[in-house]
Specification:
The protein has 395 residues and is α+β, with helices and mostly antiparallel strands. The chain is built from ten helices and 15 strands. The model has no long low-confidence stretch (mean pLDDT 78).
Length: 395
């Protein structure tokens, strides 16, 4: 059953399920409007509250199974097995090698200790807490009774209420996922002085590499005579950065107490999010002329219509949550950055999780003859800045 397409058969199936739950009677299969009305009357005779309680269970099942509006940034979501509750992330730090005692210390009268201990250094990060929020809709008793007069009315009632709530809920999740990614980018930009490799200035590098007499700007780069050459170079630059992230190193990540685990991010664990306009250009004008497109094939590549505000697609402006040199969560400096072209990051660097999601109904308000349906959720949002990530700026 879909909240987008409530065919007569679907509505009758819903009513069959309701009738079975309410009365425990099976075998009524409406084949005409007259049969539908007869069954609806039999169902309502069991009591409006019972009908609504069963109905809202069915609505909840459909609500989370079928979504007319599909949220963006869905690749940031992780399940409870991978990310949920209180997360303790243990990372192992490389230790220095020791002298080969068999070669350099063969001394008469001395033994070589094979039992010497080495605990090893680890970095332990804990991610706790979640954000809770609610939404609700009001269902009037008269509307519920009217909806059962025909299959078309029941379908209209069902679709209008649940699609409205569902679309809004999807957008809430999308915008919170969007902010999790935007925070990560702002934190990287805020720390550029300390970690310069985490922010790449595409136009500056391109103008330096090509030695153009008239350096390109964020505006002139889109002129017909410049666009193909520049975006071919950008495509190659993304390939280079993506490939470098597959090497085990401390590049493109924050340090804690002067050290951080050596990490690597295989292509299949990389996410590459670019402004949609730029990605369209790369897809149509660059990829057609190149065979070296592994990162954009194997990584999770998505186009982003806007980073934070739809009226300023390439701009971000916020005070990011970040970490200091001791690994303590702090609020960073205000970051207002235009010409944000894209971001490449490890899938563990930006993670969101749906901790709990439930739909509950209140009893009937005896005076107002309505009831409320409450949708409640808890979410977790994490930025792990010790994972690899690179922000691409068109400046």
């Amino acid at each position: 059953m879909s909240v987008n397409n409530l065919a007569i058969e679907d509505v009758r199936t819903l009513l069959n399920d309701l009738h079975t739950q309410v009365t425990g009677f099976q075998g009524i299969t409406p084949t005409s409007t007259a049969d539908f009305i007869s069954m609806a009357q039999a169902t309502l005779a069991a009591g409006t509250d019972k009908v609504w309680n069963a109905l809202q269970i069915q609505l909840a099942r459909t609500l989370f199974a079928s979504r007319p509006y599909t949220r963006k940034f869905d690749g940031l979501l992780a399940d409870d097995l991978r990310w949920g509750g209180i997360i303790q992330k243990v990372s192992y730090l490389d230790s220095e090698l020791t002298t080969d005692e068999a070669v350099y210390h063969p001394i008469d009268g001395q033994s070589v200790d094979q039992w010497i201990q080495k605990k090893g250094d680890i970095l332990v990060a804990r991610f706790t807490g979640s954000d809770a929020y609610q939404d609700w809709i009001t269902i009037y008793d008269s509307a519920l009774r009217d909806a059962f007069r025909s299959e078309s009315q029941l379908g209209a009632f069902y679709a209008a209420k649940m699609t409205e709530l569902n679309n809004k809920w999807e957008q809430y999740i999308e915008e919170l996922n969007r902010m999790a990614l935007t925070n990560f980018m702002a934190a990287k930009i805020d720390a550029e002085a300390t970690y310069p490799e985490g922010v790449v200035h595409l136009l500056t590098e391109y103008n330096t590499d090509t030695g153009l007499a008239t350096p390109l700007t964020a505006q002139t780069v889109y002129q017909p005579e410049n666009i193909r050459g520049f975006f071919q170079w950008v495509r190659a630059r993304i390939n280079t950065l993506s490939r470098r992230m597959t090497n085990r190193s401390q590049l493109y990540q924050f340090k804690v107490n002067g050290q951080t685990p050596n990490r690597h991010t295989p292509l299949e664990n990389q996410k590459i999010y670019l402004l949609s306009d730029a990605l369209d250009i790369i897809d149509t004008m660059v990829n057609a002329n190149t065979y070296h497109d592994e990162p954009l094939v194997y990584a999770d590549v998505q186009g982003v219509d806007y980073w934070q505000a739809i009226e300023n697609p390439d701009q971000i402006s916020l005070e990011p949550a970040t970490i200091n040199g001791a690994g303590i969560a702090v609020t960073g400096n205000e970051v207002t950055q235009s010409n944000v072209f894209g971001v490449i990051f490890d899938e563990d660097a930006v993670v969101t999780n749906v901790c709990e999601e439930r739909l509950e109904s209140t009893p009937l308000n005896a005076r107002g003859l309505y009831r409320n349906m409450w949708l409640t959720a808890r979410r977790q949002y994490c930025n792990d800045l010790t994972e690899k990530g690179i922000v691409l700026l068109l400046d």
